[in-house]
Each structure stands twice: as C-alpha cells, then as structure tokens.
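RETRY 2/3 - previous attempt timed out on the joint model. Re-submitting the same 680-residue input unchanged.
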Amino acid sequence: MAEVTLIKAINDALATEMARDPSVCLLGEDIGRGGGVFRATEGLSRRFGPERVIDTPLNEVGIVGMAIGMAMNGLRPVAEIEFSDFIYPAFDQIVSEMAKMRYRSAGQFTAAVVVRAPSGGGIKGGHYHSQSPEAYFIHTAGLVVVMPSTPADAKGLLSSAIRGEDPVIFLEPKALYRTVKGEVPEGEYLVPIGKGRIVRPGADVTLITWGAMAPVAEKTAETAAKEGIDVEIIDPRTLWPLDIGMIEESVKRTGRAVVLHEAPRTCGFGAEVSALIQERCFLNLKAPVARVAGFDTPFPYALEKSYLPDPERTLRAIRASMDF
Amino acid sequence: MTDAEILSVLRPDGTADPLTDPGLPDPELLSLYRHMVLLRAIDEKAVALQRSGRIGFFVPSTGQEACSIGAGHAVREGDWIFPAYRDHGVGLMRGYPLAALVGQILGNTADATRGRQMPNHWCDRSIRLVSVSSPVATQLPHAVGAAWAANVRGERIAVLTTFGDGGTSTGDFHAAMNFTGVFRLPVVFFCENNRYAISLPVERQTATGTLAEKARAYGLPGVRVDGNDVLAVRKVVGDAMDRARAGEGGTLIEALTYRLGPHSTSDDPTVYRSEEEVAAWRGRDPIRRFAAFLKGRGLLEDPAAEEAGAKEIVRGAVEAAEGAPPVPLSGMFEDVYAEIPWHLAEQRDSLLSGKE
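RETRY 2/3 succeeded.
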C-alpha cells in the first residue's frame, strides 16, 4: 500500500468512484481546468471530461441547487464548496431543499448529493478560511455529516458517501490535507458511514475528537502516557449519525470523557456528545464530561494558535478529569 | 418582437388572432377549458374547507388559471416540472390526479406524501412533478440540474419551472438564469407576474420596465405574454419548450396576470389594493374570455353547467378523501434518511411507548 496525503486520497476516491460509476460527476468553482484550489480534483477534468467535472459560475446557491436537480434526475453529484466558510449562501438549499427532499415527497424524490468543503483552521486563513460549521448541519434533520482525519478514512468515507442514498456534508480538515500521510488501499475502498474508529485504546479517559484535532489528541495522549494517564481516543469519523455505541462502551469502561473540537464551544457538537454521554453513562462517570473547544469568538487571524485547542489545553482538561 | 411587446391570441371580440393561434384541435381546446374550470372549483372548495376549519391553509390560483393550465398543456411526456406553490394547475393539466391533490390538501392517509407538508406542496414522481417548497424560487436551480442531467444522457426533453414576480428578486433566480445561459440548458422559466408578491407591488420588486428584459443579462431570450389568455400562454410556453427540446437553450417568459383572490387564506388583500383594480381584472377573467371564444367556435354551450359539474366532481373527491384515517405517528420518523438511524428509532420508540 502506498503512503499518500489526505488530499491525494480525496482525489483517489473521486477518480475511483467516477471510473466505477458513470453517473458520478463533480461540480464547483475552479475544479475543472484549475483542478480545485486545494488540487482535490486535479487531473479529473482531463480524464473524465468537462461534462463530468463541471466548472460552474461563482455561485454557491447555483452549485448546490443544480446538484440537487442532477441528483433528482439520476446523477450522483459531488459538489465542491471552495471553503466551508463560503457554504452559507447555499444554506437554504442545503437545509430546506437537499435535506428535506426525501421527507417532504415521502420518498418520491431524493437528493443524494455529496457536498465537499475544506473546513477548519490552521492555515492562517483568518475568519473566512478557517471555520468549522459542522454543528449547523448536524442540527439539520436529513443530513449525514462526515469529517475524516486520515487519508484512508478520507478515501473510504468519501466513496461510501458517493454511493449512499442520503445527502452528505463532507467536511475535509484542510490543515491535514498535506500534513498527514498514511497508507491507503488502492482501488475501490469503503469505510462504512456511521462507524467510529478507536484511534488509540486506553483505560483511564475517553477523548472524543475529529478532523484536524485528531493529531492533537494523539500528541496529548503521548504526553499523558508519560504522566501515567492512559488515554483512549475515539474519532467518530461520521459526526452524524454518531456511533454512540462505541462512545458509550468506552466511557462506561473509563468513567471519564473529554470532547475536543476546534469549532466554537457553545452549541458546538461537543455539547451534544456531552449530553448523550451523561444520559447514557451517568452512573459510570467519575468526573463531569469536559469540553475543549474553540472560543466563542469569530475566528481570529493573528491569534489563531491561541484559539485552536492544542495538546497543552487538552492535557489540562484530561488532568482535571483525572483529579476530579 | 421586442421584449416589451405582449403576445396574445384571444381578441376582444372573442375570436383568435390567426397569426398567433397555436391551432389546437377542438378536444384539446375543450380540455384546456375544463381544466381551468376544475382548477377554479378546487380553489373555491379548498378556501371553503379552510374557512370552515377542515384544513389549515390554502393558496388559491383564482385569476391565474390560464397561466398554469396553458403552461401545463405545453409539457410533454419526459419533461420535468419544478412548480411554485400556486401552480397546482400545471400538475393538474399534466395528469396529477384530483384524488391525490385533494389528499395532499387534507394531509391524511389519502395523501401520497403522508401528511408531510401543508396544502399546495404536492408532487408526483410518475409525471416528474417535483415536490414544492415554500421558500420562493428555490426550485429554479433544481430545474437547471435536472436539465443538465437530461443533456448528459442525450434526452431531448425540456424542463419547466414556474414562479411569481417576487421570485425574480431572489438569488436563486439569478443563479438559475445565469447557469442556464452559461450552460445553454433546456430550461423554460415561466414567471407569472400577478403584480403582487403578497402585498408588494411589482414596481417595488424591480426598477426595470418589464421582468422579461432581465433575460438579456443572462444571454437568454425574454418574452411577454397575456397571462389571462390560455391560448397565448400555450403558444409561448409551447414554443419555448420546443426550442429547449431542440437544444436551443432556455427562455424567460413573463406572463402578465392578476391574482383575483388573496395570496393565501391567511392574507387580506383589501389592505394593499383597491376594489377598482380588482374589478378591472375581474373583467379580464381568463375563464370567461376563453368560454366566449369556445362559444363562438360552437364548442361550448352552457358554461354554468360546466362549472356546476366541476364543483360536483371536486365535492365528490373531497368526500371520498376526507374519511381517510389520519397518518400514523410512526410515519413522522420515516423518510428522514433512507434508513432509520438509531437516534430516530429511539425517539420514535419513546413517543410510541408514551415516555416522551
């Protein structure tokens, strides 16, 4: 197996699924001739042609709305939003149309669109190139929300999203696009939607995290191990529907839970994970469920490093949980 | 023809202008008329149902029958329809069954969409009549996508999408028109300019003299038509759909019409428009104008009998559907996703067991 970057794995998933199924097509800004601002679609226009890799005018409403119509008429569109910070013009199309088509038509029409969007901070992108909007979409009935943290998961989950029958918001941790490498199976490869991954087994505390915070969690666990704290890391991979079974089993075993994400704290997905844990594991908990998150401010350009959770902040939360 | 001219067929004396007459055979002319009469009977009955508390809401199309029936008649097998909530006539003309329409209004088990949406939000996959939503003009970009998919497969079909004058102010209108122009797609944008978006007059919706001229900015032809003249609507939409099917791209049609009733059963139009204005448009009633033409052609004898017959048909359909049982509770949790995920199963079970 070859070691590749996360962005290469995304490209691989798109190419593999397009080769397998002629109804898979891509649309978005700069994705054809330009190969995408992050090069996710590099070479695909040349290989599959401009009818399947569609350079659209600059309009997110048009991109998502068009994708919905394509899906209703038999295609499997994968729409790219250049940065998840630019997804809000299409919010209505996503939450009121794409997410609701199956329900409101009682299954007569569906909109199995995959919306890919680079997400999160860590690239010195300031407020408009760094946000983590997952909670908006998790809150929306009818959407599947996915965020991989490894190249293999990126390929396997994107392939599953494309083949699935539900609309998917596929958030890609852009900070990891070229900073992580990993072995990725060649050819068709699927990771099931809705199944988490135990990144690191441990006995003392369960650390639940996703996206670009997964490597932060791993660094934290290494340091914690030196202090004698054995951290179990869970990456749900699919944020919604969440693999609650895996989290419940782990927290019942460790008795402690910390949720780590870079999105703002208030009503961030950590709040829901925390509520689910206390509903299900109350009698097993040895400490309150802790949250380590971005602050409730706009994403700050110059102070990005202090805004994003790091191993030190995460370790402090873990120590507090252990010492409770 | 410039984009300020208004195409019409029916002349004041009740005859058809031979230069623009689409030349439909007699049975088709009669079918157009009967569907218009049926549509009005549906509206009258639905408003009465709302007033008596048997349904919660309705959006009547009274006064605009020539638009939706004329446009619906131009749709062929294989074409797609992305309608606005006031355009039940388009579906009705395409064969959306009255029983299904009534079932949807009632929202009980007679509703094929399982009571999921308020009245006027119908759909029927078998005739490619796409599910209606309430946010204005959101269906326009969907029409673009369906047209693209048809093109990719080499299908020679057209896509019809309908909306009102208010819809032309939305971002979705701009996106869809622009994409259609750039990609040269077979989408026909049928705008029913009924002069008011709820209370706002069209002069406050746009500073352009016409809505049709907006097409020019997108590289599309824009045409205006008398929206109270069913033959003119049929002619203009038919020509645009033919052009679309022939691969010649999209068209924006502005149909000039008037909503004789309220925006919805929750609206009181007397606060924003005058009695005189309404009376003037009542004089241009699309059904009466067409009836006069049909009488002149010897195709129609007794309009009152036609209207009474339609009322009877609608009454029977409501009676048949009103007794259907209410939708089951468990259906609330279905069709959210392709399969019911754990959290919805938990919520459903909690509700059904009385714990919730």
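Chain B has two domains: 6-325, 328-356. Closing ticket.
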